Amino acid sequence: MLRKIFAMDRIDYALLEALQEDARASLAELGRKIGLSISATNERVKKLVVAGTVKGWFVRLDADRLGYPVLAFVSVSTDRPDSANGFIAAMKDLPEVQECHQVDGAWNFVLKVRARDVAHLEAMVARQIKAVPGVTGTQTTIVQRSPKDGQYIPCLPQAAAEAPALAQA
């Protein structure tokens, strides 16, 4: 799908901030925050969705309450670059793999994985991740706690983002 590219203004950035704060807010509430009417706010939201800036609306669930209290990052190495597509496809089929990132460095991929307990995590790594053709090694890091865990993206106009930091007094 082709995405329409447009220049965003300060109102678009304010709208993105408001949506990140509360994606369930009504158009009236969003409009009050950014100083626009309901219809103008609706048009802005539609424009941001069509452009692909807003990729979707999500519910964030409590993994602990749903029986998946173990969070781990699994680094994975593969034997050759052409193993990547098969590995990615295999990870997309594992619901416990929340994220799969192809990276540079000592490892080829980093996975964010949820598990019911350590035994479930160990079995998943051994039977499902290491079993993918081309995987040559893994390293698992279990998260003890997550003092900051979010999806927030700073919504600053490009000029503000590129401005030099103020000198410290």
Walk me through the structure.
- This protein has 169 residues and is α+β, with helices and mostly antiparallel strands.
- The chain has two domains: 10-59, Arc Repressor Mutant, subunit A, CATH 1.10.10; 70-142, Alpha-Beta Plaits.
- It is built from six helices and four strands.
- The protein has a four-stranded antiparallel beta sheet with strand order 2-3-1-4.
- Strand 2 and strand 3 form a beta hairpin.
- Helix 1 packs across helix 2 (27-34) and helix 2 (27-34) packs across helix 3.
- The protein is elongated, with a radius of gyration of 21 Å.
- The relative contact order is 0.15.
How many whole angstroms does the radius of gyration measure? 21 Å
CATH topology of the largest domain: Alpha-Beta Plaits
State the low-pLDDT regions, or none. Answer: 165-169
- SS field, number of helical segments: 6
CATH superfamily of the largest domain: Lrp/AsnC effector binding domain/regulation of amino acid metabolism (RAM) domain
Secondary structure: elements and pairs:
Elements: H1 10-21, H2 27-34, H3 38-50, E1 70-78, H4 84-92, E2 97-102, E3 109-115, H5 118-129, E4 135-142, H6 158-162
